[in-house]
Amino acid sequence: MKKTFKILFLLSFICYFFINEVSANNFIDKIxxxxxxxxxxxxxxxxxxxxxxxxxxxxxxxxxRELMEKNNWISAVNWVYFCPADYxxxxxxxxxxxxRYVEWKKIAWYDDTWDRVVFALDKTNNPFLFQTNKINPDxxxxxxxxxxxxxxxxxxxxxxxxxxxxxxxxxxxxxxxIQRNFICSDKEKRYLYFWYxxxxxxxxxxxxxxxxxxxxxxxxxAWKTSSMIYNSRYIVxxxxxxxxxxxxxxxxxxxxxxxxxxxxxxxxxxxxIRFKPIWKQIKTLDNLSKKLTNTRINIYxxxxxxxxxxxxxxxxYEINVNSINNLxxxxxxxxxxxxxxELKKKVIQEDEDRKSIDEPLF
Length: 362
Known about the structure:
Elements: H1 2-22, E1 26-32, E2 35-43, E3 49-55, H2 64-70, E4 75-77, E5 100-102, E6 105-107, E7 117-121, E8 127-130, E9 145-149, E10 152-155, E11 158-159, H3 162-166, H4 172-175, E12 178-185, E13 191-200, H5 205-212, E14 216-220, E15 228-230, E16 233-236, E17 244-250, H6 255-273, H7 278-302, E18 304-308, E19 314-319, H8 324-358
Antiparallel strand pairs: 1-2, 1-19, 2-13, 3-17, 4-15, 4-17, 5-6, 5-9, 7-8, 7-9, 10-11, 10-14, 12-13, 12-14, 15-16, 18-19
Helix pairs in contact: 6-8, 7-8
């Protein structure tokens, strides 16, 4: 038994080493010190993918999916703090004063970063930290793009969060044990990891990020703002609309063109089922949903590596889908899955509307 486990562990290590060499838009699900990490891993040296920040040009909040479908994204997550319309103090208006850089252009309300820290990328995609008069003060002119947020969690592998507690910048919401979102780079400045650790207190986050492999890390917004899309499918649904996002694009994959074609498929599906009995419509849509799910699982299974503990419990897996062909299939599958879900809601509502019309008034 032990020998078999060692062989499996070795195979997992070999696969992991291999997948590390080609990763760009990978999804990692991993247990570290009893905390679940679910993150997107991005290779900054990848020739096939582009990593960007996005600012909604009309400054209006919308869903992460809508932002994705208007643009050419395949994966995305929420990012810095903003004042949401559902907060009374925000006067029912979505807005942000969070500074950011987009292709050299600085969009900021303040000249000084004060206690916020910039997690930056230079023109050649090398990550570094910047803070006015404190961290790399001579590198501000090298910032090509990135964002400001707080607290800073790790700097050069060191836990630096104590400062924010000392100056009372960590409020009661930030102290709570909830899902925490982050972005970090590894020691070699080759990979970015971004998204969440489940059910963890803020003061526990830096230590566990270091165990995961983070070197420099900052906190991202959480609570109802939390949202994550991987290969066009929601992994976590947001509780509110968003202004901005961290995004991944696959070069030479035209997702906007796919959306236009898939909307025509929606019309065809609806025309084929609309005059069938309601039970048959739902059954047809459920069967289609199952086929889509099974196809997605098969693609991921063929493009994943796994690691198990001595009790054969899965403690880690990584998905690496890189080819245009498979990414296109996944985009189609995940978009149609959404279409089927929406059509099912539609036919059920139409059936309820018909019944209410047919009911006698007395």
